[in-house]
Design brief:
The protein is mainly beta. Helices cover 13% and strands 45% of the residues. The protein has a single domain (23-181), classed as Calycin beta-barrel core domain (Lipocalin, Beta Barrel), CATH 2.40.128. Strands 4-3-2-1-10-9-8-7-6-5 form a ten-stranded antiparallel beta sheet, with no helix packed on it. The protein starts with a helix and ends with a strand.
Length: 182
């Protein structure tokens, strides 16, 4: 009886140990937004069409990203302002052990702190960021939440699924942005 049970359990244990032994994906590299074919239309403003076309808020990061990953953290860097601007590129560091990561963006009304956690969900890395702000209508503190799920669809194709919480009566929204590795 024990040998029959062992024959059934052993393959499950082997499979579980091989899944546990797999290391998480490495997102390191330089990535550029993969422009999807769309029906012709007019872009708004002077920004490149990938940043200004209507209907998508994108990943929440730039159209060109540099990702650096080690065992402890993922760092995301991109240029937000015009490349010849004196402002440095944005750089965000996310701890991969689930601990709180704090990143500060200095723009608009001064420094704005973003509080994030990163957690693995299978082969995807989910970064949850809270943005705190003051409601201009009633001066009350508010917060919104953004979740960015990074997953490799192939060694050269990165998908970022971004979900933004609804604030001030708005609805939550989800977008998928694909990046090609350079």
């Amino acid at each position: 009886m024990q040998s029959d049970a062992m024959r059934r359990v052993l393959p499950i244990l082997i499979l579980a140990s091989s899944v546990a032994a797999q290391s998480p994906p490495d997102f390191s590299g330089k990535w550029t937004v993969l422009v999807m074919r769309r029906a012709p239309g007019a872009a708004m403003g002077s920004a490149p069409p990938t940043l200004s076309e209507t209907g998508s808020m994108g990943s929440g990061w730039g159209s060109e990203l540099t990702l650096t990953q080690d065992a402890d953290a993922l760092t995301v860097e991109y240029t937000y302002f015009h490349p010849r601007e004196i402002q440095p590129p944005f750089s965000f560091k996310y701890l991969l052990n689930g601990a709180v990561s704090r990143n500060t963006v200095n723009m608009g009304r001064g420094p704005q702190e973003q509080v994030s956690t990163a957690a693995w969900a299978g082969a995807s890395l989910v970064i949850t960021t809270t943005h705190s702000f003051i409601n201009a209508e009633n001066s009350q503190p508010m917060a919104s939440e953004t979740k960015q799920a990074l997953s490799l669809k192939s060694p050269t194709l990165l998908e970022i699924e971004t979900t933004r919480s609804g604030v001030m009566g708005g609805k939550a929204s989800t977008t998928k942005t694909f990046y090609q590795k350079n």
